[in-house]
Amino acid sequence: MRKFLLTLTTVIALFFTSTPILAEDFSVAAKHAIAVEVSSGKILYEQDAETKASIASISKTLSIYLVYEALAKGEITLDTMVDISDYPYSLTSNTELSNVNLDERSYSVRDLLNASLITSSNSAIIALAEKIAGSEAAFVDRMKAKVQEWGITDAKIVNVSGLDNTDLGENIYPGSSPEDVNMFSALDVATIARRLILDYPQVLDITSLNAYDFGGYTYYSTNQMLSDGTHARGGVDGLKTGTSNSAGSSFLATTQQAGMRIITVVLNATDGLTSPENRFVATNDLMNYVYSNFSLVTLVKKGEAFEGSKIKVFNGEKETSPVVAAADLTVVQRNQTDNVPTATFTTDIKEIDAPLKAGTLVGKLQLKDQDLIGKGYISEQASVDMIIPSDMKEASWPFSWWNQFVRYVNEKL
Known about the structure:
By secondary structure, this protein is of the alpha+beta class. It is 29% helix and 27% strand. The longest helix has 16 residues. One of its GO terms (biological process) is regulation of cell shape.
């Protein structure tokens, strides 16, 4: 029965997303919101998306990125055991904070990663930070450096969990005040989430779980849009909820539908503290809006030339060689629009010498999308390499000799 209801819910969602919702008729029931297509980074909707706001436990998304980075660098493994210091352990006694039982005082990185992502355990992410960087403060410094790399220069980061500093007592970041909280814009959050999904897609194997066992207890996901949730929507497999007095009720989500994966950010949903489910309703509305108005389109397929793209060949069996895309060039296009994105082939090579080897790089195919919302893209618009599709031998003698002679005369005499 449960599977039937979920399937019915998905069908209903797909039915309603088939009819476009006009941008001028749509708004998200939250203070800040954004929607971004993951592969391209194209912004598909924004609502006061660049204003800094408290994001509560959504902060853990950045912390988790650095945990995966530490795993990739070999600083830790999933089986590395982590001792729970008195600081994170003391927080487990505060029943108003999201946490898990840590009475055993030693757990694997794998278990703490699950606890941080699924149950939003504050103590688990603090323990991971202490293990990796030596202290929470040192880990916060890593967080600050990482977002600087991504062009986020004005975020406020004071802890790894997203808790208000008032909850941390004497353990606050040096130089911060008891009133400080982590502050990011919806655009910042989308940028971080996109990097996490692209660089460490295995995170979705965890965030898609409805429940997990930890220390002899079963804990359930805070994401009610997963398959067993009260607001289940097919395709949703992450990512992070956030709730606090300063942040209200917020939700960072990701879903894939019709081959297009998007990230949605809803910060401080309307009446969210009294009705936490409002963040899921607002997120579902935003997803419906995106999928009814945008589609992922392949502009040029891998192995295809673009508008007859070719390059002149010196001393080859043929005078020119076609130039083809090394990968698909995809773009998110607004449905029912005449403003269709295009692309431009650019190369610094006027002529290439034979023999030619398949796969030789000769230029770029750069997307030219002028249908922009806000800043348009989180990063630069997409491009793909343009390459020689097949080997080409030198011209046979005496043509090869003659070609070389003509070049010598033209260049030397």
